[in-house]
Amino acid sequence: MVAFKHYYRDLGGQVWGAYGPRDAINPDQDWVSPIFMGLNQAPITVMIENYRTGLIWKLFMSNPEIKPMLDRIGAAGTSHP
């Protein structure tokens, strides 16, 4: 989240556009990709929501198949990071 806030707050106009963050940046070369990659955007929103509320993890762990699977692979007691 610290990096994401930096990109938004400090680099804003350089890396942030109408569709969210640009596909890639290289500050050392003063280069910003001219394109947006929608494929990369969806996982970002899911990760942010999970970080904020844990909702994604809670929904995942509420599936009845998950606990037996975790028990079987020896990862019982796995909690939200």
Q: What this model shows, in words?
A:
This protein has helices at residues 2-9, 12-15, 38-53, 55-61, 66-73; strands at 16-17, 20-21, 25-26, 31-32. The strands form two sheets. A two-stranded antiparallel sheet has the order 1-2. The protein has a two-stranded antiparallel ribbon with strand order 3-4. By secondary structure, it is mostly helical. A hairpin with a 2-residue loop joins strand 1 and strand 2. It has five helices and four strands. The mean pLDDT is 85.
Query: Strand order across the biggest sheet?
Result: 1-2
Total helices: the number is: 5
Based on secondary structure, the structural category is mainly alpha
Helix content: 40-55%
Task: Spell the H/E element sequence.
Answer: HHEEEEHHH
Low-confidence stretches: none
How big a fraction of the residues is strand?
A: 5-15%
* Overall pLDDT: 85
Estimate the global geometry from the Cα principal axes: elongated
Query: How far apart are the termini?
Result: 14 Å
Largest sheet: 2 strands, antiparallel
In short:
This protein is mainly alpha-helical and 81 residues long. The protein has helices at 2-9, 12-15, 38-53, 55-61, 66-73, and strands at 16-17, 20-21, 25-26, 31-32.
